[in-house]
Amino acid sequence: MATATAEHHENYLTELKTIKSWLLTLDHKRVGLLYLFSIVFFFLIGGTAAALFRLDLATAEADVLSHETYNKLFTMHGVVMIFFFLVPSVPAVLGNFLLPLMLGAKDVAFPRLNLASWYIFMIGGTFTLVAVLMGGVDTGWTFYTPYSSTYANTNVIMAALGVFITGFSSILTGVNFVVTVHKMRCPGLTWFRLPLFVWSLYATSLIMVLGTPVLAITIFLLILERGLGIGVFDPKLGGDPVLFQHMFWFYSHPAVYIMILPGFGVISDVMACFSRKRVYGYEFVAMSSMAIAVIGFFVWGHHMFVSSQSIYAGMVFSFLTFLVGIPTAIKIFNWTATMFRGSVWLEAPMLYALGFIGLFLIGGLTGLYLSTMALDVHLHDTYFVVAHFHYVMVGGMMMAWLCGVHFWWPKMTGRLYSAYWSKMSAILVFAGFNFTFFPQFIMGYMGMPRRYHIYPKEFEVFHQMSTLGASIMGLGLLMALCYFTHSWFRGEKATQNPWYAFGLEWTHTQTPPITHNFEEDPVVTREAYDYEDESIYTNEDKARA
Amino acid sequence: MSADHHDHPPYQAHHFDSMEQQNQSSMMGMWLFMAQEIMFFGGLFAAYMAYRFSYPAAWVAGASTLDVNLGFINTLVLICSSFTVILMVMAARKGSDKGIMGWLVATMVLGAAFLGIKYVEYTGKFDHHLFPGKNFDTHYVMGKMAAHPEKYAEFKGMGIDWVHELVGHESHDHESGDKHHGSEDDHAKEGAHGDAGDHGDHGGHALPADATAPLGIALYFGLYFAMTGTHALHMVIGIGIGIWLLVKTKRGAWCSEYHPYIEYFGLYWHFVDIVWIFLFPLLYLI
Q: What is the full DSSP assignment across A186-232?
């Protein structure tokens, strides 16, 4: 199909332009963009839900929402943000786009399966949205029994089916990525020459393949329980609701690492590029991802310290949870050491990355509070927990996702965005985020339980700070939406390598890439992040430096 | 298709450099898929373990209602189907489309036979009101327990003290019907389903008026249906894939070097068989 005219200006975006060519595309880059648009859509839904109940929580009384609506909104916020934004955010958008490019491959191992994953994702999302339109679900995103089995009179089955179906999208993406990393690396690209983003995707994909099916069977049993009353989670028939918690967290704790490991990968790549240095202790950063993936499968019980779990099991879970702190700390130290004596360049992606490190550090350290059994009894189900996981999930993963989108946006679209507004947005999101969630640590410590619609007057000031901060963060995010939209249509054309970054995706293919990625099959002869090598700079760049 | 692909076999996808790479990739993908299948069934087996240890008496009582003979026949049927699947793969490696289709049909017939026998078993369970939910009724189970009270001697405090009292009583009390009108009605219902012969299972022992089923009996049947149902669903999907493969084979999609889906179907079918090899002893025998 190649036409003779202007072959170098053709790229994967311009080669075919029909809607059909997008909906039937087998190109991993287009699938990545399909995911990008989809998850931004879901993010806006989840964000709107959050905005509504945060507004309501500004006063101690219920003034905007009824109690039922409040419950449904926080459930929707959780379900949509976790399963339809955080889990697919970095792997499905950036992972799909970048993995084959970083490996020097023409595509992922199974392109058709990849497109199918997106359709499965959208079908799952549709089920969940239908459940919302039919009146919503009020169980909380965890679907704990018996809220979800005996005592719910909402569309639990519909929402649960949505999550069940979406899970298969996750599993298939995981299978695809693991095989791609094993089998599609170009000549010379050994395991320890892989970008750390690939390592973190690999670790994530293993969790997706081995963890998600357990969520699937748990939801399946929940649907049988609710629909047919088979009794597995019903104490009246001898079943145990705590078994649901065990099975649910067996997936959902590793899922927390699905939601953060890819972010680690983004930060590693961005840190190296904007410090102009090799990532300090590359092998340790790579292996710490694998360690987190493995240990992450054995810590689920720390969600259940107060739910009749044996105290000895609790001690083991507590110990293993502390253990996760070690590989995580290795990463934080190594990123910091990467910046040390580097030439730190404060563009928007780097601002997001620095924000990530600070916020994730707070999120991680408060995780140690919560893994201490005695302290957890006090803090369990309070706003302290809410603040902790938002510091990790929003301060961590959402920041990392934004960091990655800012970093690779020129590669994906071939256009630049406003440097000024993107920095403003990064600062607003960072400040607004802290304003939103830091007060929640304090009120949680003082005993404010999570998921309460009305609360004692004394917590009002903290809630108001939260609501104010959320507005600032919302403003920063909307700002990003605006300049990205502008950039998509009108943005200045990007050069091939605007960040002078290392990696096959920058140095070996045009921007945006052609459909089959590389004009010539790449061969790798050196390690990742070889920023001491000056050959990536053109003479023009050297003059600028 | 661009010109540089002319020396590749037609079935090599554009994004692979060699057939070796393509074959290894798809084989690895299949094994990873099976790993997720193991985790999927693993959740069910974990639930099984938790409740089996909590409610051992319910497991003995529940298993006594299953027909070991039918289960055994089904096990044989599946083992035979594993054999025919191997013959199908062998035929594919020799490049014989006729062989593939013949053995594939044989495999699917055996799979259908398995599902047919399963259907008979399920019907029996439904007739005895053993499907958990609104119509769940334990009289049939208690009748089975009364027939062999000695099996429950080791279980204390499971809500089945009445069974322990039956041990050693050799009474063949034909008037026992007066004592439990409730279950009499139930037997009438069973009679309507044409299962009157099952009365014989009650043996010589009367079912006392205060008889209760062991704790957790609903869970045994809940898990029985969830586990065998999920397994049967995999069989149905397998047969569906088999039909698709038949069409593809008929169109001549394979040769001795290239028949990946035949190989993966073989792996999948073996996996589903192995799940049953675990289910049969766990649910029927122990």
A: PTT--GGGS-HHHHHHHHHHHHHHHHHHHHHHHHHHHHHHHHH---T
